[in-house]
Specification:
Blueprint (H helix, E strand, L loop, with lengths): L1 E5 L4 E8 L3 E7 L6 E7 L8 E2 L5 E4 L4 E6 L4 E7 L9 E5 L4 E9 L6 H4 L4 E9 L4 E10 L26
Antiparallel strand pairs: 1-2, 2-3, 3-4, 5-6, 6-7, 7-8, 9-10, 10-11, 11-12
């Protein structure tokens, strides 16, 4: 469903769904694509996955809540509500330079629609910026219509092979 890289532990992580409404958090071997279970998440349908450089893992579930992952307990806990409920493929990623979390969110206006009409409604994709420390969210802008964004990646200054800054400057 979504993937992220945990720089603090050197693990590629992925979420997948199973059963009626459950998720598994897996460690993926980049060499062969094999996966091993990292944490079982029964009763929670996680839709996104992102990890900070410090190893803080977050996900948004279909219930519209942002969740934080506790590595010791191997469990997710609610951080705050971000939407009334999300559907379809989405992705999120940290901007490791600013520490802000970006979410390519798929939103459908379903007010007053019958179940048969929901699939026919105009659906837009918005980029949203989440500050997990302040627990705030801002709309950045619309990035598509009836589209699904997956594997969101934001390059950061640390990911570039740039020369070191000058340190011995004299006037």
């Amino acid at each position: 469903v979504d993937m992220t890289y945990d720089y603090s532990e050197g693990n590629l992580l992925a979420i997948s769904h199973y059963g009626a409404h459950s998720t598994s958090l897996n460690i993926v071997n980049p060499a062969d694509g094999g996966a091993s279970l990292y944490a079982d998440v029964p009763g929670l349908w996680l839709m996104t996955l992102a990890c900070s450089y410090e190893g803080d893992i977050y996900s948004i579930a279909d219930d519209g809540y942002l969740y934080a992952f506790d590595k010791q307990a191997k469990a997710f806990s609610q951080v705050g509500r971000v939407d009334s409920g999300i559907r379809y493929m989405q992705s999120m990623e940290f901007d490791h330079t600013t520490g802000l979390l970006y979410w390519a969110s798929y939103a459908t206006d379903q007010e007053g629609a019958s179940p048969d009409e929901i699939a026919m409604l105009k659906s837009d994709v918005y980029m949203r910026e989440i500050d997990v420390d302040k627990k705030t969210m801002n709309l950045v802008g619309q990035i598509g219509s009836t589209a699904r964004f997956v594997a969101l990646y934001i390059p950061s200054a640390a990911s570039f092979d740039a020369p070191a800054p000058s340190t011995d400057i004299k006037a």
